Amino acid sequence: MKIFIYSCILISFFTIQGNGADAQIISRRNFEMMVDNNCFFELTCDENVHQGMDSKFTGTITKGGSGWYRFLHEKTIFPEGVEGHLTFKARKNEVGGFVDVYFDNPASGDLTVTIDAQLPYYVTYIENPDRNRIPNVYIKISVDTTNYKVQPPYRVTGDDNNNPKLNLDEPIPSVINFDWQVIQRTKVDADDEKDGKPYNEVTYLYTSNGDYAAIKPQDKSFSVMIYSKKGHTWIFDDKKKTITVMNMPKTVGEGGAMGKELAENIKKAPLAKDKHEEEFTITKTGKTKSLLGFTAEEYEMKSNKVNASANAAKTGTMSLWYAKVPFDPVKIYTMGVGRPADISKIQNDPKIKNNMMAIPVLNKNYLWVETESGGIKGMQTIEIKKVSNTIYTGGYKIKVMGSLKDMINDPDN
After folding, report:
1. Do 377 and 187 touch, CB atoms closer than 8 A?
2. Rounded to an integer, what distance in angstroms lies between the CA atom of residue 378 and that of residue 374?
């Protein structure tokens, strides 16, 4: 029995020290992380490593610079793995908060990394083109000055080969089944006509319970955009095999703030505050009509100002038609956010009540199907049908965009 035990120890020793395939597998038990500093100040890193030996450690990351952190397993016959914390914060205390990276890379089993950012920091996890190469984890630390809600921790887990992959706070399911398809056309100006067509055509996909909604544009600017259960936006690019994850309302808000700042810099003065008078009044007329087998109800929108549209000026009104359908399309009208749990607070708000996009929010299972003004249909629905449409999400590289700047700096854009 002793001879057998000694033989096993010797075999293990040569396997760990050798240069063959087994040694390469063992070498991946190291934890190696690259950090880009996207803040406007230097970052420092405090280490609290419970296991593992610090082989290469960078204590300070300059503004716009990168830090490389490498922790090796103890070189014993039976390695214990690597486990501990790296905490990043402003070197001169310019801002509060911190970013904590907890890593657990045992001698056997998969790598697990949890990245927890406390405001004003937020973290972008960057997928490596080749997961078999180092570093195990590649992140970018930035500062969010817009005071949005706390970002959920990123969890990075290993697969069978200990290659890191992102586990989002809302995992992307392997398949998404849609039950309904809607095709709508929107009239465009003659100058905007494409291929001689006076309209743009968009295909929408819906689940009956409203958990998911999708958009497939005619111009193929992207393959499909899906609004998820929790309000995330997943943009698929079939050519590049990527899924871009973002928060659409936040990104649009950042774009508005960026545009305001640009306008004020040009004007060299603050922009005037929005006036709160009601520009439009929308009322339900009681008229109905059948559209593609569904009953549509008319709402009349009347401008409280002089109409700029030549067609609308003929009548001074616009007809909006909404159909009661067997699915909830609300995510399309709220950029994925959905309907508030308590809508009583917004029902009597004039800015909401007299907003055409808010009608499907205030009325469940309302699909906006048509607009008409001056005898011209600005938007019309040409198809509403029950389908069984499955979208598969496997085989895509996932990219997380934490901000509008991430999207602007994305090389794929």
Report:
1. yes
2. 10
pLDDT at 299: 94
175-187 and 164-167 as β-strands: parallel, antiparallel, unpaired? unpaired
Strand order through the sheet with 376-392: 280-291, 294-303, 317-324, 366-373, 376-392, 175-187, 199-206, 213-217, 224-227, 233-237, 242-246, 397-400
> What is the C-alpha separation between 321 and 370, in angstroms, rounded?
5
Number of H helices, E strands in the chain: 8, 24
| CATH 2.60.270.50 location in the chain | 28-167
How confident is the model over 274-295, as pLDDT tens digits?
A: 554 467 788 999 999 999 999 9
The CA-CA-CA angle for residues 219, 402, 113, to 5°, reads 125
Q: How far apart are the first and last CA of the chain?
A: 64
Q: In what order do the strands lie in the sheet with 81-90?
A: 60-61, 43-51, 81-90, 99-106, 112-117, 154-158, 164-167
The residue type found at 321 is W
DSSP string, 198-247: SEEEEEEEE-TTSS-EEEEETT-SSSEEEE-TTS-EEEEETTTTEEEEE-
E strand spans, 293-395 = 294-303, 317-324, 366-373, 376-392
Q: Is pTM beyond 0.70 here?
A: no
* 3 state SS of 327: coil
For residues 392 and 203, give the distance between their C-alpha atoms in angstroms, rounded to a whole number.
18
The overall average pLDDT reported for the chain is: 78
CA angle 374, 378, 383 (to 5 degrees): 130
Identify the residue whose tokens are 């398809």. Answer: 181
CB distance 182 to 206 below 8 Å: yes
Residue 48 · residue 85 · CB < 8 Å: yes
Token pair in block for residue 117:
């950012």
H runs (alpha helix) in 219-369? 248-267, 310-313, 330-333, 350-353, 359-362
CB atoms within 10 A of CB 382: 12
What are the tokens at 344? 């009583």
The CATH architecture annotation of domain 28-167 reads: Sandwich (2.60)
* pLDDT of 75: 58
Closest CA to 339 of 207, 411, 231, 251: 231
CA atoms within 13 A on the CB side of 282: 21
Q: How confident is the model at residue 296 (pLDDT cuts 50, 70, 90)?
A: very high
